Amino acid sequence: MDQSKCFLSAFEELRQIYAAADREIAAASAQCQQCGGCCNFDRNGMRLYIYALERIHLEFICGKGLELCHGVCSGQNQTLCHIHAIRPLGCRTQFCTITLQEIYEKYAQKIRALEQKYKIDYDYSNAFET
Ligand code: SF4
Ligand code: SF4
Question: What is the average per-residue pLDDT within 87-99?
Answer without folding.
Answer: 95
